[in-house]
Design a protein that fits this description.
single chain, 7-stranded mixed sheet, 4-stranded antiparallel sheet, 11 strands, about 0% helix
Length: about 130
Amino acid sequence: EVQLAESGGGLVQPGGTLKLSCQTSGLILDYVAISWFRQAPGKEREGVSCISVGDGSTYYEESVKGRFTISGDNAKNTVYLQMNGLKPEDTAVYYCAADESYYCSSGHGPLDPQIFGYWGRGTQVTVSP
């Protein structure tokens, strides 16, 4: 059974940092793409970043480029999202999602949530003074 579990969300001031984790089970990370999506109240789910863990190829949505970094640790079956320079507009529930066929790259965007078949339950990130 495939399971994804996010952690690391919280309340942070503008300019602050958070590191989200997506713990996976039932997947071989070398053969999957893991994405981070976010959804703010009243807005559609938005793709933030994606990594094809096998070769480390990544994608970032334009608004997070230079601030967020996605990485994977095969030994821990975990994908991380390091978020620096957080802004109030980054406030949302952050979800990780997985797909065994998709390939992440800088030229493949925006991310379509319908592509990803496995989802976690999300972790809240709030950026506020």
